[in-house]
Amino acid sequence: MNQRTTSSTLSHLDWLEAEAIHIMREVAGQCSNPVLLFSGGKDSICMLRIAEKAFRPGKFPFPLMHIDTGHNYQEVVAFRDKRAAELGERLIVRSVEDSMKRGTVVLKHEGESRNKHQSVTLLEAIEEFGFDACIGGARRDEEKARAKERIFSFRDEFGQWDPKNQRPELWSLYNARSHKGENIRAFPISNWTEMDVWQYIEREGLELPSIYFAHTRPVVLRQGAIVPVNVPLASGELTNLPKAGEEIIDLQVRFRTVGDISCTAPVESDADNVEKIVLETATTTITERGATRLDDQTSEASMEQRKKEGYF
Amino acid sequence: MSTNENYEDHGLLRFLTCGSVDDGKSTLIGRLLFDTKTILADTLSAIAKTSEKRGLGAVDLSLLTDGLQAEREQGITIDVAYRYFSTGTRKYIIADAPGHEQYTRNMVTAASTANLAIILIDARKGVLTQTRRHSKLAALVGIPHLIVAINKMDLVDYSQETYERIKGEYLEFAKKVGIDDIRFIPLSALNGDMIVERGEQLNWYNGPTLMEMLEAAPAAHTEHTEKFRFPVQYVCRPQDSANPDLHDYRGFMGRVEAGSLKVGDAVTVLPSGLSSTVKAIQIGGVDIAEAVTEQSVTILLKDEIDTSRGDMIVKSSEVPAAVKQIEATVCWMAEQPMDRARTYLIRHTTRDSKAKLAAIDHRLDVNTLENLPAEKLAMNDIAQVTFKLAQPLFVDPYTENRGTGAFIIIDESNNNTVGAGMIL
User: Fold this and answer.
1) CATH number of B321-423
2) By C-alpha distance, which of B107, B161, B160, B96 is closest to B130?
3) ipTM for the predicted complex
4) How far is CA A209 from CA A44, A118, A196, in A?
5) pLDDT score for B65
6) A7, A8, A9: which to substitute to probe chain B, counting the most B Cβ within 10 Å?
7) Which of A25, A245, A273, B161 is the most exposed place for a label (fewest CB within 10 A)?
8) CB contacts < 8 Å between A and B, how many?
9) 8 A C-beta contact, residue B263 and residue B279
10) Each residue of B274-301: pLDDT tens digit?
11) Is domain B13-216 in CATH 3.40.50.300, yes or no?
12) Residue A143 C-alpha, separation from nearest chain B C-alpha, in angstroms
């Protein structure tokens, strides 16, 4: 672990890290039963390092939880399990597929992205464990609904975000109070950008799932996006099958963001280490979500809509 | 070589932009993001599409700060938005506050974390009521640096005379406000003059560009020596750990609100008043020699002192006042007016106390800047009040230390944050 030891001003990464540690400790200090959402993605990997800096040599005062769509990249799922084991922290996994079996998630059609349905499974898990706060790795630079969301964001018992009725948030005085059934979503890296995340990963020497680095995989080009095809699931079954007439090409790509297989697209890249990714991020011409999130492009307000319905 | 070491890091600056859409605030922010290459191609093509849909001739950079669907439907900005850009040497966080009068609370919110404010003036209109209101609020919330940006110079033929006249008008008013450092700059956000590039039209202006001013502005906590203040957030006691060395470990976790601390310093824990010496300072269990302002650390003491969340560790030579009554400037933020008969919760650092209003000394009219007598506090009101407290708080005047001079007011019935206060 690196940190600055003297000099009067904190570097921007030290400042962001200190703010994030402070936020995590506020959650631990104010809430009785919090949980940290950990997907195995780069933002939540940073969150785990922040939690180490916040709470070691003690254990984390919260378990880790992943809402698994059942359509996650195997490399990421394996990394998720490995990282939780290395840290010796408890990992809870709840699956959208279980919600489908219960009948609480109904897909419009078999191929529909399960990403937005994570909200249902998340709310079910919150109820099951009685969590009063969920710590997440969302960033304000990702999307314009997030740009206006509080660091401590209040959700009613349906998990709904009301953008017009948010609690004022001043200085670094956070209000995490809630009644039973309601909960707080806390975002310690709200003020980080994609670049900050990569610089932090580089500085801290954090390990990442292999699909963040340039690799060759079969893809098709669909409406301007690079869509990975024939992706193997843990069961060995292939998902994201190409549509009739689509030409499969082998392309060198990496993922800038990692989520449900059906809605995360990679970018063409030959950046095979963190240093190259930092340089590529500095010179990229496309936003993280613009390049890679097929679900956000559906409508101008889609993230705002999903958040109102309980999404992270 | 690591890319992190490739450039000098000047830390982070948080600033606030005040003004309405009419002053060109959104265009200015759009321009800052655009000229620092923060806007990427897909965002640009999306706003180009929207500009076309709305029948605009050129790409409207102000659309970059276009917000939520709910806001677009009503054609207003309802909340503070945070935006980010970086120059390679410094990271910036912009708090973009809406300008309307009814949103005083948003401006106070946005200002609470800023160390600099840009006040936009439309060169055609000069100093308006709104300009005065924004400046007064910036001063109240303790922003030490102000840039008065006289924008839309392109619409007054880049006239130096107009610029000087507005500057004079503003300085006349500023005497009453009390901000230490005020700078002026002529701009055309629309054409990008004096933002990052100097442009061709303002050659009579010899001062720095807006970006140069931002790059040179002091970051928070760098200008004065401050007293050490460490509110305890959380106590780490890993007794049940398999490691026997940790059985006696008691780490007091928190963020340094002000000042700095070294191993060996004599400290006092409040409210107990018991003293000890700093045995170690750690981050994530790793020793460091010194903790500085805004750093999140864990402090270990030589003696076993019963300490929990809500306590404060200070240097024994700089103990703050413990008070059970506070006088403060309060901004009321809830739709329901403050009820004088009710008890509220005050959250100050990591400490809570029940509080009752003892007196409203006066209310500030944010438009005329006059102090008026007041019986009640409604949303967006700013007033000087006195609270009686159930528990003692360890406070410094807000002007000395924002961290230990600020508090929020919580309504326990619905848990909402209903007000913000600055201790006098």
Assistant:
1) 2.40.30.10
2) B107
3) 0.93
4) 12, 21, 18
5) 62
6) A9
7) A245
8) 204
9) yes
10) 999 999 999 999 999 999 999 999 999 9
11) yes
12) 10
